[in-house]
Amino acid sequence: MLRLLNRIAWGFAILGGVVALALAVVVVVSIVGRATVARPIPGDVELTQFGIALAISLSLPWCQLHGSNIVIDFFTQRLPRRGIATLDAIGALALGAMAALLSWRAAVGAFASRQTFEATMILDLPMWWVYASLAPGLALTALVALVQAVLLLAGRDLEELRT
Q: Least CB-packed of 6, 38, 68, 132 within 10 Å?
């Protein structure tokens, strides 16, 4: 199961990178169009906002899996290894709870937005697409963090999750 979780997180991160790369192309084309022929891509700001949110949510599980989040260990660097693992487990539990809450609320927001036919101002894209697209990455982040917390509390090394 740990290997499957790793592969899914990797796939999400690759997809997030593809989305970010596509957005970079959209921004460049829009800027060049604005500068040369006074015709930017309509709705480029909407696309960029939604795309970056999606890219971030898809990349979060991989970042959590590899401990790429910011860690401030000034006060804890002299603690024994078990104490640090316990604090890391508490942090992972807190992140897991927060990501689960955000995923749930994104899904609820998608349903509510779909019922009200909320759409973007320029492109008239359904807003529920945006909310719905954020939920899977956030849910996977919650799952990764909770698995990490369980491993840390059981005294196991997180490297087995990363391979």
A: 38
Cβ-based neighbours of 131, under 8 Å, separated by 6 or more: 106, 107, 109, 110, 113
Number of domains in the chain: 1
Residue pLDDT, tens place only, 100-159: 999 999 999 999 999 999 999 999 999 999 999 999 999 999 999 999 999 999 888 777
Amino acid at 81: R
* Domain interval for residue 102: 2-162
